[in-house]
Amino acid sequence: MFIKVCGIKYPANMRAIGKTDPDLMGFIFYPGSPRFMASHLTPEDLDMLPFDIIRTGVFVNESIDEIIRIAKAYKLLAVQLHGSETPETCEILSNEGLQVLKAFSITDDFDFELTSAYSSSCRFFIFDSPGKGHGGNGIPFNWEKLQSYHGETEFLLSGGIQAEDIVELKALKHPKLAGFDINSKFEIQPGEKDVKKVRRFINNIRSSTIR
Fold it and tell me: What domains appear along the chain, each with residue ranges and CATH number?
């Protein structure tokens, strides 16, 4: 299972979370988010991360040129698009050598056929909860809805996941479920993660027993 820890904002906390061995770390470049990191983390700060962690920039309806500029400056390996970005935008960014993660807000009447146009250019989909903000809303959606997804692209489950969900998460069965994206329920404050809680969650997800 892939684990993505999203919404990292502070240098010391970033380094500590990096030692918990996540697969991806998300850095939010959307100024409207309380986890907007550009005034706190420099490209040099991100260079302190282990090389095998996939640095992921999170953007909301940003221009392609600006995404590419930031990706180069911060040496991002992946970009997560959390707005109304088109399949063409995803394709352009994929052709730039970036792994693309496209987020979708899953409501009870969401039509998963809407994801098919994105399949050829996305490494993962992010299935998240709807809310006032673009992610980080802390509210889960109805996970039974996942059984309506029959696409070929793997997905990360997001939206209000918390440490207490570990039994239910390990019981989820879907051929394209690749992992989990955690954020607000693992925070001390927006952008600062509880390192012990994150480490315990990652260890439990990857272990055959729950501790």
Answer: 2-206 (3.20.20.70)
